[in-house]
């Protein structure tokens, strides 16, 4: 079984009409969610997305949107107990 | 018991720390290590090189016994917060103005991995101040970020040292750095290098091109096992673990087999969640980390029950068996769920969804388990 977490949860949104084909998203994604198909990026398997946010941060054309965050239960609990608005790593 | 509130997906944004390297043991966010807390350049500096922006320390690209000892200590979770490198510019070999510039975090493991991969090359190393935290985690927090790259380029006078305008950043720094903004603000073009430093020679040889394989993060058995000592050392410091050991010692000293067994049972459940679940991660055929831990914890609890004799000889024994079957798997599940942060493939949305299913079940199982335990003790008395 491949190392995969839950399906159909990733918040990744890709507007291909804004893509200029620079290839940055395919270069930075650690799970090969993007691949280049000619002069356009294409989403291969969005269930592999871990929402690290590398693609959207490095897309100069605003074609990618994802709610980046920590995929860490401990950080989510730690932040919830301390009423932090966003989950973050511990001290 | 106060229930931790699980935030809704919509309430969250913009922080990331999913990391193959553990990072929660790092120093407090915002608290930069004091100058005397940095690992001084002495152990790995072999000399100095003169540049138009001043003298730059030259560092060895072959790791010594002292570096390996440091790595061992860090992996074992000893003195982890004291491994920050002073940020700034370093040299490997005898670089000239046309030599490549590699950017790294000031976490000693990241820095060591990078310089060890540059053996035989001449290069500049620009070390960012990431508060002693590894590249990926720091990128998620934003300390390995656009602002810090821009600041460090300015502070080191990099534009005077280098004749070219290309920076090689680790790919895992990308969540924090917008390459196009760095280019706009400093004139330096950002090229993302491979994920693993060991692939740098091949990346350079191919004309700064990374293969698809170099761009995929993996999480093999070896990496998962390397993380468990830190998980364990955090567990050893926790109350629940100390209580289990205490229980076992009390049972040993008092000569009460039941208490001794209870202590061992809890130690086993802790191991199942913190070591066995990470080790067998891809081979436990369910997706939720908590479910993976629960399965191993249940197998262990069943073994404990079998050891106590099945079927139980008394109602009290039956209640005790029920307590084991309810408490141990829930504990393993909870600990396994906490490994999501060390894994390299879980998303915030995924972990929030997992917690919404798993946490209520763990709490129900825990409460019922404690009730069964009380019933068993009362009946026996």
The CATH architecture classification of the largest domain in chain B is 3-Layer(aba) Sandwich
- At the first level of CATH, what is the class of chain A? Alpha Beta
The CATH topology of chain A corresponds to: Alpha-Beta Plaits
Beta percentage of chain B is 5-15%
Discrete helix count of chain B? 14
The CATH class name of the largest domain in chain B reads Alpha Beta
Oligomer: heterodimer
Give the beta-strand count of chain A: 4
Please identify the structural class of chain B as seen in this structure: alpha/beta
Protein architecture, described:
The complex is a heterodimer of chains A (91) and B (381). Chain A is α+β, with helices and mostly antiparallel strands and 91 residues long. Chain A has a single domain (13-81), classed as Alpha-Beta Plaits (2-Layer Sandwich), CATH 3.30.70. Chain A has helices spanning 24-28, 54-57, 73-81, and strands spanning 13-14, 34-37, 40-43, 64-65. In chain A, the strands form 2 sheets. Chain A has a two-stranded antiparallel sheet. Chain A has a two-stranded antiparallel sheet with strand order 2-3. The longest helix of chain A has 9 residues, at 73-81. The N and C termini of chain A lie far apart (34 Å). The relative contact order of chain A is 0.21. Chain B has 381 residues and is of the alpha/beta class. Chain B folds into 2 domains: 21-215, Rossmann fold (3-Layer(aba) Sandwich), CATH 3.40.50.11600; 221-380, no CATH class. In chain B, 50% of the residues lie in helices and 11% in strands. In chain B, strand 6 (101-104), helix 2 (108-116) and strand 7 form a beta-alpha-beta unit. The longest helix of chain B has 33 residues, at 348-380. Chains A and B meet through helix 1 and helix 3 of A and helix 3 and helix 14 of B.
